[in-house]
Structures are given as structure tokens and as C-alpha cells.
Recover the amino acids of this structure.
């Protein structure tokens, strides 16, 4: 569990780093705009990211404000959200 | 197909697979027959703790000790099957704490390591539990296994020793002549054999009838919810003390010739099993029914118990549900052994909710029985003939 | 309050909107449910302002009186006449009673397991299109759009419009595409659209290779390169033709798979179409399924695209109204005639696509033992092979032995791959009338506090 660092409007934090968010962005869109494609690691340690892009495959999972297994491709990116890649403790 | 076998095992679930594996060490020609796919029955629709309870009889606890020892031994021999032993917590409210604590010395005396955790120690041991429990009994040797992987590994070992594992073969009858087994009739022909092991779980009653026996095994339906992967949320296999009470009170419903009297009230109690893959299997429920359709009301009752126990689960997602049929017997113990009514038949069925846990020890006992050796454990209380198997066979 | 006129439509894409509109206009009380926060399905993703026929804009402008529930997921079909839905934002759960039901749950891109398909930067063609149109982003800057069918042109158009370097890798030979010239020429709308794609792609120097497939994708933590090979008519690589191209993203577009979970949960009869390697919901000419009072329209009845979906949706809505007694037979016949005519007309192009760009068996031979089969549970093809261990090869056997299909997506991604891999490699015969994958509730992941016991309703 992380405490939310101060972020300005229009940005979320990804593993502690600031990522700009545009209105209407999904989390995946905000990250892809910065060229961030690896969102988690599989049990076998492989990097994974967006695959189907429409919320079916459950690959683009991130932890948002402590909630695990959130699909980045269909979840709106909210300013101030604390997003963590990889597996986090639920 | 016309063939012969030294022993035919009927049933490709955990019990049948364990019997085939143990028999394949002692007997040359073992054939296992499964009517659909391996582990397609109860073994793929259950929870799968390996261990013991707290309120059981001394005899049952000794059997559970032996059951755990078999898993330990096989694990030392290279068995994987996702077997792990992280301990279980029997979580108690103030009403149950005293009764549970009273049992602990008896368990220790029987070789089952247990300790009591007070409220604060409990919070450390399992931080996601609700905060108002009085404490918990920690059953240190309690573990879990993947029943499906167990079946695959056991049958692979058996195959490696020459056993024939046959799926999609329906057994239509156990053939007998003058009180002795002569073979097994299947959808693809008859197999001549003098030894049959009946390990068909809830389907054993129907099959036993073909040999003229009425075996008191009836389906006790359970439900399970599967969570999304939540690695690290739970450290132990969790049960609420009420589960023990529920299980104990199931011992003796009113019986009729065709089974437990209808109208027996269903029971639910939280049993949370965190899998190695991260999902949590959330059970449990018990009711006498023979279908495997999920009952939403029952799922709702389980959900409420689970959320009461681990409140954060309310915000975590369920990805699947299923229902399975435990092979229940009127005294809560399996039938393991021969019967005086039919020579050459060994029954290994009726394990209730302990099929996974007692699978390996059953296999070992059955191998002893079939080979004519003295079993390593007193199995008189498990004798099928403790019931009157000649009682008039009632409609299913 | 059951006068037989309460209609529930599941899916707010072209088919669902059309069904809702037609049924409402014919006198039914309609509720339309969609899991997204906007209507339009996949087709209109990122194009909410479109003025095309059947668009969300057109739907809103028609002021249909339909009750629209967005952000709402169907989680269970507990009994005939009721669906349990969950609203993600409000966490509200309700059981919606209905007299009749239209299923318009659409389709998703066909998953294809080739070596490296799990690398970040590999996305589906539909996913890439959605990301580009809705958000102006792409999985990389140098992209391959690989697969088969005219949809690749649309995706390449979307991506190149955002400034990406794009190359199309079409598995079927050039003559398969050329074979459609006649049909396209007779369809003004499609002809215009296709000409537009080709012109823009030419301007942006988007190359098209035919009879070529991406057979492997390479990289450590993301896509860095891809191997492309020429293939024969069965899509089997021709040795000696492999080349490696430096790219940072691959979009896989090998057709679509219908979303059948709800139809299966309800018990609607399915039938397998071996040509497209898909199961579809069986419907009659009025879009009735085998389950009484349940209708289906759009991609789940057969992959026909948007115009077919619109016509089918309208047909389903009208038939529901007829069956409910809200529309008399004479009226129905008058209204359905142009729908049937339209369906016949627009289906010509759809039919050509269905036949010319079918997935061929070579597609299922690209996987190596190390290639992932089940992404959710990290099961490789090697593990699946080992799990079979001499048992009759069925999807169920692999699932039991390996946990493939038991993860979050509940087999949506791996079961199509598994079925075809078993068929091609092990001679498995997929059943013709039953999808070899059991469905259990919930139909989508749902918080335990919402289902099965909603905390507001103890």
C-alpha cells in the first residue's frame, strides 16, 4: 500500500512517477502516449501489456488506488490516481 | 475388446488414481477405467484441503494423521501436484473459542500439531481477517493439493509401471458368479478379472447395485466461488469454527430406504482456500442434492459468510462458481475394504469432503488389501460391512 | 406487470441499438444494457460523433424512449425471464425481468498464438484501431498490421493517420483480395470506403504484402522485431522466405470470435461454422434463437459486419414486437420486407469476406512448444501437450491438467486457440452443436459484495 504523493490535476502516478492524463483517457491510453507498454509481469516473469484493448483479455492489469487487477484499457484515467504496475499486494 | 487384468479400478478421480498408483507398485496388470475424463467428477469441482478437523473422533484424527503422512512421504518422493503445507486457521468467535481450545490437547496427543492464537496473534498471522474474532486454532500440518494435478501425476506414475489408464470407458456392471467377481462389463467389452476396486465416488452406489449390493453413499452437494488472483491476501487455509459444527451436525440426518430424508436444511460456512495461482476458492455449502447446477441463493449465503470473515473480499471480484457432489455416508467415514457378500470386490468410496485428503492413504490401504497384506492402519471401522449391504436396493 | 412487452436488449452496438429502436417504435418497452460508458459497441469506439446510419448519434436523435443503462454488465442469467446486471460506477445490482430478450453481444478479435505474441506492443487489430481512434495512441511507432481481410485496411488507415509507419501483412494471396472487386464495385458504399482506404494508404506509403504472415515476434520486454515469411495457400510458411523486420508493434487481425457466454448461459443452440472456426447462435429468418422469447442479432449470429448487424437488429426488434402481439402480422410483413432486402444486399460483401479470408490451418502451426497458450495462467503449448499425456485430446482435458482457461478471462482468449490447435495437431473434432467450453456464472468478473449477495439486499 502506498500513500498518495502530491500530484497536480491532469496527472496520475505510475509507480511513483508522474504521467500526464488527457480528458477521456483510459489508463492504458495515458501510459501508451508516454510509450509505456509493459504494465505487469506474468507469473513466469514475462512483461505483459495491452493485448485486446477492449477489456476482454485481462492482460493490461494494474493496481489503482490499492485495488488490484484493474483493466487499464477500459478504466478511465483519473487525475490523482495512484497506479502501480506488476503485482501488488491486494 | 476381450482382455484380462489382475485388478480393475473403477473411477478416475483422486481415490481411483491413488488406488491405481499404489496397486501398480505391487500388482502387474492394473487397469483403471474412467467413464469420461480423468478428474472429471468431484475431483474437479471441490475444495482441496489436506488435513484434519478439530471435533473429529480419535479414530478419524488418526486416519487424518496417516493421510497427511502419505502426502509428506510422496512429496519427498517427488510428487508435486501443487501440494503445500502452510497451515490452517480455525477462526473462532467468543462462543466457539472455549470449545475449540478444549480439543487442542487431544489433537496434540494424536500427533497433530496445533496451537491457539489469541486475538492479537491472530491479527498478525492473518491481517485481512475481521477484527472481532476471539482467536483461532492454528493447525500447522494442514495443507492443500491440486486434485486435478494429483490425478494426472498419480496416473502417470501408474502408467509408467505398466498400468493401463482408460478414459471415456463407461462401466455398465461388475460381473459376479456365485458370490465372486469375474469381470467388469464396459462400453468397449468385458475385462475378465478377479479383483475390482470400486472407487467411483458418488457413482459407486449405482455400480455396486450391479453386484447386488446396496451401498449407502449419497451426493452431498457443495458450492464454490472462485476469486480473481489475489496473491498474498491470505496466509492460511481459513475455516470458521461454525464449519466444524456444520460438518459434525451432518453426521446423522434421518434416513429412509432411499437415502437421507428430504428437507434437511442446507448449511453454509466460510472455507477460504488460497491457491498457489493466487485465486481463492471460497466455499462452502452442504445439502443433499444430486445435480450440479449452481444455486444462486446458496452462493449468496457463502458470499455473506466469506465477507464476514475477510471484509476486503467484498471489493474483490469473483470470476467463476461451480458445484460438486461429495460422496456422503451416514457415519461420515468412507467405505474402505472388502465385503463378505462379494469376493474379489474392494470398495474405496464414500469419502465425503475428505476425498482429496484421504486419497493417498486410501490407495495404500487398498493395495494392502488386494495384495493380501496386513494394512498399516486398523481399518475395521471403515469396513463396508459395518452397513448391511444386502438391504433391499432402493430406487436411486 | 407482464403484458409480454418488456424487452431487454443486451449490447449497445449497431445490432443492439437497431433492435432497441425498432422494437420501441413498434410498441415494446425497451431497456438497453451495455458495459461501456458509451453506446456504439466496438464499431463506433472513438467515433462517437459519427453521423453514419446506426450510429449512437442517430440513436439519440431518434428519441426512442428506450431506457439505456450504460456501464452495466450482465453478470448472470439466473432463470428464464431475468438477467442480473451490475453497474460498475454505482455498484448497483439489479435483476431485470423481461418478457423477451435480444442478445447483441458482438465479437472480439480472434486471438492467435504465435511465438512472441505476449510481448508488450503486440495488440489485436481491433484494439489498435480503438486506441488510435479514441485516444490517438498506438502500441508503437513502426507497426505491422498482420492478419487477413479488408479490416486490415481500416486499421492501417487509422494508425497511419496518427503518424505511425505501417506495413500490412496479409496472409491470403493477392487474388483473394482481387476476387472481391466485382462485389465491391456493385456496392457504392463499400466501393467508396475501399477506394478511400487505398488512396490514403498510398499517400502515406503504407506497403501491403500478400501471401505473407508474421510467424514470430521478437523482443525482451517489448516488441523489437518480427519475422515475416511467405506462405502457401494453407498459410504454411515457405522455407527460405523468412525475413526479419525491425518494428516496435504488431497488430494481429485474423478475424473475430463471437461473444457467446450469455447465449450459452441461457441455453441457446449454437452451431459450428468450420470455415470460420467459430460457433454462432442459431437463428431463424426472424432472428429467433432456439430459446423461446430470446432473439439474437449481429456478430454472434455470423460475422457480417456493421450493415448486416443493423439489418439483423432491426429484424430482431420487429420480430419481438410481432411475437409480443404489439405488431400485427400485416404490419410486420410490410416493415420486415425492406429489412430482408437490405440484408440480402449488404450480405454480399460480408459473404465474400467470410469466404475469401478464412483462417487456414497453417495459422495454428506457428506456435512452438514455448509459445504461451493460456495467457492468464501462463500455460505453454508444451505444458498443454504434456497435460494431454495420452488422454483423448479435448479442451476439457487440457483445462483439467493445466489450469488453462481457469484465469480471469475464463477462456475467452485461450479456448479458440486451444480448440483449433487440438484440431490441427491432434485430430480433435469440435462438436457441431455445442461449444466445448462450460459457462458458469458470473459471466464477467464482479465484486463479491455485488454478486451473488448484494450488500444492500441481505
Amino acid at each position: 500500500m502506498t500513500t498518495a504523493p502530491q500530484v497536480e490535476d491532469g496527472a496520475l502516478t505510475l509507480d511513483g512517477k508522474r504521467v500526464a492524463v488527457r480528458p477521456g483517457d483510459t489508463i492504458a491510453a495515458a501510459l501508451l502516449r508516454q510509450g509505456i507498454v509493459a504494465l505487469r509481469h506474468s507469473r513466469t516473469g514475462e512483461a505483459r501489456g495491452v493485448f485486446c484493448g477492449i477489456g476482454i483479455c485481462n492482460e493490461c492489469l494494474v493496481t489503482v488506488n490499492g485495488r488490484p487487477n484493474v483493466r487499464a484499457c477500459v478504466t478511465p484515467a483519473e487525475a490523482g490516481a495512484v497506479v502501480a504496475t506488476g503485482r501488488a499486494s491486494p | 475388446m476381450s482382455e484380462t487384468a489382475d485388478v480393475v479400478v473403477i473411477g478416475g478421480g483422486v481415490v481411483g488414481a491413488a488406488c491405481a498408483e499404489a496397486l501398480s507398485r505391487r500388482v502387474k496388470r492394473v487397469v483403471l477405467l474412467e467413464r469420461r475424463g480423468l478428474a472429471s467428477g468431484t475431483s474437479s469441482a471441490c475444495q482441496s484441503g489436506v488435513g484434519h478437523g478439530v471435533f473429529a473422533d480419535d479414530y478419524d484424527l488418526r486416519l487424518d494423521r496417516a493421510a497427511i503422512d502419505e502426502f509428506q512421504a510422496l512429496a519427498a518422493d517427488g510428487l508435486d501436484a501443487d501440494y503445500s503445507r502452510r497451515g490452517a486457521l480455525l477462526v473462532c468467535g467468543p462462543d466457539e473459542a472455549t470449545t475449540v481450545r478444549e480439543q487442542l490437547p487431544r489433537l496434540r496427543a494424536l500427533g497433530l500439531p496445533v496451537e491457539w492464537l489469541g486475538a492479537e496473534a491472530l491479527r498478525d498471522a492473518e491481517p485481512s481477517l475481521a477484527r472481532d474474532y476471539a482467536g483461532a486454532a492454528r493447525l500447522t500440518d494442514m495443507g492443500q493439493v491440486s486434485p486435478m494435478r494429483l490425478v494426472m501425476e498419480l496416473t502417470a506414475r501408474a502408467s509408467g509401471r505398466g498400468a493401463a489408464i482408460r478414459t471415456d470407458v463407461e462401466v455398465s456392471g461388475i460381473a459376479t458368479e456365485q458370490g465372486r467377481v469375474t469381470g467388469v462389463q464396459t462400453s468397449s467389452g468385458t475385462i475378465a478379472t478377479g479383483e475390482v476396486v470400486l472407487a467411483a465416488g458418488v457413482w459407486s452406489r449405482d455400480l455396486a447395485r450391479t453386484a447386488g449390493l446396496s451401498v449407502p453413499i449419497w451426493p452431498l452437494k457443495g458450492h464454490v466461488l472462485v476469486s480473481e488472483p489475489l496473491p498474498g491476501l491470505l496466509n492460511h487455509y481459513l475455516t470458521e469454527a461454525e464449519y466444524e459444527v456444520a460438518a459434525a451436525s451432518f453426521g446423522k440426518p434421518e434416513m429412509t430406504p432411499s437415502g437421507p430424508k428430504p428437507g434437511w436444511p442446507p448449511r453454509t460456512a466460510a472455507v477460504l482456500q488460497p491457491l498457489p495461482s493466487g485465486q481463492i476458492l471460497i466455499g462452502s455449502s452442504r445439502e443433499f442434492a444430486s445435480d450440479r447446477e449452481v444455486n444462486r441463493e446458496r452462493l449468496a449465503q457463502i458470499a455473506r459468510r466469506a465477507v464476514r470473515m475477510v471484509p476486503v473480499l467484498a471489493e474483490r471480484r469473483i470470476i467463476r462458481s461451480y458445484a460438486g457432489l461429495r460422496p456422503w455416508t451416514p457415519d461420515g467415514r468412507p467405505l474402505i475394504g472388502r465385503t463378505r457378500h462379494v469376493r474379489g470386490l474392494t470398495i474405496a468410496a464414500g469419502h465425503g469432503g475428505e476425498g482429496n485428503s484421504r486419497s493417498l492413504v486410501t490407495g495404500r490401504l487398498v493395495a494392502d488389501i488386494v495384495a493380501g497384506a496386513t494394512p498399516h492402519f486398523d481399518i475395521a471401522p471403515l469396513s463396508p460391512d459395518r452397513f448391511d449391504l444386502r438391504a433391499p436396493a432402493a430406487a436411486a | 406487470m407482464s403484458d409480454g412487452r418488456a424487452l431487454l436488449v443486451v449490447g449497445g452496438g449497431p445490432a443492439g441499438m437497431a433492435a432497441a429502436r425498432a422494437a420501441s417504435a413498434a410498441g415494446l418497452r425497451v431497456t438497453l444494457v451495455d458495459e461501456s460508458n458509451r453506446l456504439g459497441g466496438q464499431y463506433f469506439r472513438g467515433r462517437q460523433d459519427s453521423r453514419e446510419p446506426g450510429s449512437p448519434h442517430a440513436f439519440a436523435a431518434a428519441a426512442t424512449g428506450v431506457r439505456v443503462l450504460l456501464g452495466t454488465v450482465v453478470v448472470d442469467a439466473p432463470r428464464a425471464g431475468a438477467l442480473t446486471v451490475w453497474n460498475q460506477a454505482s455498484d448497483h445490482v439489479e435483476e431485470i425481468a423481461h418478457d423477451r430478450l435480444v442478445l447483441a453481444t458482438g465479437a472480439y478479435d480472434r486471438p492467435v498464438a504465435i511465438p512472441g505474441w505476449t510481448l508488450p506492443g503486440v495488440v489485436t487489430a481491433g484494439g489498435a484501431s480503438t486506441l488510435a481512434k479514441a485516444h490517438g495512441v498506438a502500441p508503437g511507432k513502426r507497426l505491422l498490421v498482420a492478419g487477413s481481410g479488408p479490416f486490415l485496411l481500416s486499421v492501417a488507415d487509422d494508425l497511419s493517420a496518427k503518424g505511425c509507419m505501417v506495413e500490412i501483412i496479409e496472409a491470403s494471396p493477392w487474388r483473394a483480395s482481387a476476387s472481391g472487386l466485382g462485389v465491391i464495385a456493385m456496392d457504392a458504399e463499400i466501393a467508396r470506403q475501399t477506394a478511400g482506404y487505398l488512396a490514403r494508404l498510398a499517400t502515406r506509403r503504407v506497403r501491403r504484402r500478400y501471401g505473407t504472415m508474421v510467424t514470430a515476434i521478437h523482443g525482451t520486454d517489448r516488441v523489437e522485431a518480427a519475422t515475416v515469411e511467405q506462405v502457401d495457400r494453407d498459410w504454411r510458411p515457405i522455407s527460405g522466405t523468412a525475413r526479419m523486420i525491425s518494428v516496435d508493434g504488431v497488430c494481429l487481425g485474423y478475424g473475430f470470435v463471437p461473444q457467446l457466454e450469455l447465449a450459452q448461459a441461457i441455453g441457446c443452440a449454437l452451431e459450428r461454422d468450420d470455415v470460420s472456426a467459430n460457433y454462432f447462435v442459431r437463428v431463424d429468418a426472424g432472428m429467433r434463437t432456439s430459446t423461446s422469447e430470446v432473439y439474437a442479432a449481429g456478430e454472434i449470429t455470423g460475422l457480417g459486419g456493421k450493415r448486416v448487424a443493423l439489418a439483423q437488429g432491426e429484424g430482431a426488434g420487429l420480430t419481438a414486437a410481432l411475437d409480443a402481439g404489439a405488431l400485427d402480422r400485416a404490419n410486420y410483413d410490410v416493415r420486415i420486407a425492406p429489412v430482408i432486402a437490405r440484408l440480402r444486399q449488404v450480405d454480399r460483401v460480408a459473404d465474400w469476406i467470410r469466404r475469401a479470408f478464412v483462417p487456414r490451418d497453417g495459422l495454428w502451426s506457428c506456435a512452438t512448444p514455448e509459445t504461451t497458450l493460456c495467457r492468464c495462467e501462463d500455460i505453454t503449448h508444451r505444458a498443454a501437450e504434456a497435460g494431454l499425456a495420452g488422454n483423448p485430446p479435448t479442451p476439457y482435458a487440457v483445462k483439467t491438467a493445466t489450469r488453462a482457461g481457469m484465469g480471469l478471462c475464463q477462456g475467452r482468449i485461450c479456448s479458440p486457440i486451444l480448440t483449433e490447435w487440438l484440431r490441427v495437431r491432434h485430430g480433435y473434432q469440435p462438436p457441431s452443436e455445442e461449444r466445448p467450453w462450460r459457462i458458469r456464472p458470473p459471466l464477467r468478473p464482479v465484486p463479491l459484495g455485488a454478486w451473488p449477495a448484494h450488500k444492500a439486499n441481505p
Q: What stands out?
A: Residues 323 and 425 of chain C are 46 Å apart (CA to CA).
